[in-house]
Write a structure and sequence with these properties.
heterodimer, A: mainly alpha, MetI-like fold, 75% helix, B: 325 residues, mainly alpha, globular
């Protein structure tokens, strides 16, 4: 915790602003149901009310409060993106570390496999998998992480290859140090900042990917994320000819942009700090 | 050299087989089978097959054979160009795809031209004024733009230019039910509909082109001959365009092919925003109606296009830059 505070203090003004925004959205996602007066899944007013004191962001076609939906959507985005980032970083760093440490044929096979997954067109494949496995939060997390680990694996492998060339590793190996010993004493401290950075970047990417999937109607219909709100709004007949888009489309749109941009700014800030480009 | 190309190609052929395998096994790993799916139709039509009928259909579609033989048959069909039969559109999948693919390729190619041109130009300007005010402004604008997902930008364009200002049409690729008086009118109509999708699609790649061009320009602007050109008192645009940009263009050319690959994937979303009649919109319809043969067919075509683009990028990259040998 102390480290984080020191880090924020040393950040640039833009980084600080991004951090503030992200904290606000995280608070929204945790305390969303306390912060909104109305439920996010039941109608609580007339349909398509304009923003007012009562309904801060207005209501959608079923009369459900949009502010409550945005709060709930923040939670879903957070759950999905953190889930994806955890899974992807786990798989990716595992494959990267094994590949870089072992080298030889194992490295070759793992890297060819990684190349193959990288070449696959992401969005169409996600659509196919999403369509066949059916929409649920769990499936979306799995499908998204299937595509997010590749970059992490490559980066950790590249880093590990440079570490493995160091003399102290060679000497340690010469003394008969086991993988576990070398990993804990020499590798972990060097690889951890990179994985943290990857984690943050993957979170941002996962939010975009989830929003895209649910915008196409492949999101979990029982848990309304921001993309799904957009999807509903765009499917509404005459959304272009009525003023409803001013709150119905704009609020999830702004929410997505703010979250994605603030995460990417924080990622950039970290990149500058560790002097490391992805 | 040709040995090198062969080596690269082998990797891509394996990827292609990998994709076909995915395509083949996904529906077969699903719980249940297609006839149970069809039996309990979601749209209210209740169709149930008896056991004998199921047996008959399974035999008809070759689903009672062992997986290995099914797989071989599937690959044979795909290589013949036979992608199956669409359930919703009652036509061969390959025919449907051919009728839609030009729309997608059209906006993809135009978007690449836009993003390549403006990205490179702004990158060059930015590099020339390195660390100046102009550079900082352009750089930070691009940093933010490249993080915002393109379909969000497309939505903003849609609501601002099409719905609010009413300059461009809201959706579709052409005016429905219109008899054109001349082919010129036809073409202008299609262009009019294609502007917003192509421009918003170009935002997927413009950031990459910008960064690439900026970095390679910064490298080149430090070379001696640029200093000479400056000392000779040549004007700015001549230095940027004739002396520097020409040499900085190499990495950009190779990037074009890679960008085509990403743009094809990105087009799926953009087309859906504008209801543009390309493959992406078709894919969404197919997903909506659970038309599995169509989904798989589109996926396969898109994957093949992306693979070919990546392969070309690899080869061109090695050809253009002899240092990479």
């Amino acid at each position: 915790m102390k480290k984080i505070i020191i880090y924020i203090r040393s950040a640039s003004p833009i980084g600080k602003a991004a951090f503030l925004l992200l904290t606000a959205i995280i608070i929204l996602s945790i305390f969303g149901s306390q912060l909104s007066r109305y439920p996010h899944d039941l109608s609580s007013g007339k349909s398509l009310e304009a923003p007012s004191k009562d309904h801060k962001l207005g209501t959608d076609d079923l009369g459900i409060d949009l502010w409550a939906q945005i709060c709930n959507g923040a939670r879903i985005s957070m759950i999905i993106s953190l889930g994806v980032a955890t899974l992807a970083c786990g798989i990716g760093s595992f494959i990267g570390i094994i590949s870089g440490y072992k080298g030889g044929i194992i490295d070759y096979i793992l890297m060819r496999f990684t190349d193959m997954v990288i070449v696959l067109p992401q969005l169409p494949t996600m659509i196919v998998l999403g369509a066949f496995f059916g929409p649920s939060i769990k499936n979306i997390i799995i499908v998204l992480s299937l595509f997010s680990w590749t970059r992490i694996a490559r980066i950790t492998r590249a880093k590990l290859l440079t570490i493995m060339e160091q003399d102290y590793i060679k000497i340690a190996k010469g003394y008969g140090a086991s993988f576990k010993y070398i990993y804990l004493n020499h590798i972990q401290s060097q690889i951890l900042p990179i994985i943290v950075l990857c984690f943050i970047k993957t979170t941002g990417k996962a939010i975009v990917a989830e929003a895209s999937l649910s915008f196409l109607g492949l999101g979990d219909p029982t848990s309304k994320s921001w993309g799904l709100i957009l999807n509903r709004a765009m499917d509404f007949n005459g959304i272009y000819f009525t003023p409803y888009w001013k709150w119905w489309v704009a609020s999830p749109l702004i929410a997505i942009v703010l979250l994605v941009v603030s995460i990417s700014l924080i990622g950039r800030e970290l990149e500058n700090k560790y002097d490391f480009k992805m | 050299m040709s040995k090198n190309i062969f080596k690269i190609s082998v990797g891509y052929v394996i990827t292609f087989l990998f994709i076909i395998t995915i395509n083949f096994f996904i529906p077969r790993f699903m719980p249940g089978d297609p006839f149970t799916y069809l039996s309990s139709d979601e749209s209210g039509m209740n169709v149930t097959y008896s056991d004998e009928e199921m047996q008959k259909y399974k035999e008809y579609y070759g689903l009672n054979k062992p997986l290995g033989i099914q797989f071989v048959n599937y690959i044979r069909n795909v290589l013949k160009g036979n992608l199956g039969y669409s359930i919703i559109l009652n036509d061969e999948v390959s025919k449907i795809i051919i009728s839609r693919i030009t729309w997608t390729l059209g906006i993809v190619i135009i978007s690449i031209i836009i993003s390549c041109f403006f990205g490179t130009l702004l990158g060059a300007v930015s590099a020339y004024n390195r660390n100046g005010l102009i550079d900082k402004i352009i750089y930070s604008v691009f940093m933010i733009i490249s993080e915002v997902p393109a379909f969000i930008i497309a939505l903003i364009f849609l609501f601002y230019f099409a719905a609010y200002l009413d300059i461009f049409p809201l959706s579709g690729g052409f005016k429905p039910f219109v008899e054109y008086e001349s082919s010129f009118e036809n073409i202008t109509d299609i262009i009019h509909h294609g502007v917003l999708p192509a421009v918003s699609l170009s935002f997927i790649n413009i950031g990459n082109f910008y960064i690439l061009s900026r970095n390679s320009m910064i490298d080149i602007l430090q070379k001696d001959y640029i200093i000479t050109a400056n000392a000779k008192g040549l004007n700015k645009s001549r230095i940027i365009l004739r002396h520097a940009l020409r040499n900085a263009i190499l990495p950009i050319v190779t990037r074009i092919f890679l960008s085509l690959g990403t743009a094809i994937g990105g087009a799926v979303l953009i087309e859906n925003v504008f209801k543009y009649p390309g493959l992406g919109t078709l894919m969404r319809e197919a997903v909506f109606f659970r038309d599995y043969p169509l989904i798989q067919g589109i996926f396969l075509i898109m994957a093949v296009m992306v693979i070919i683009m990546n392969l070309t990028a690899d080869i061109v990259y090695k050809k253009l830059d002899p240092r990479l040998k």
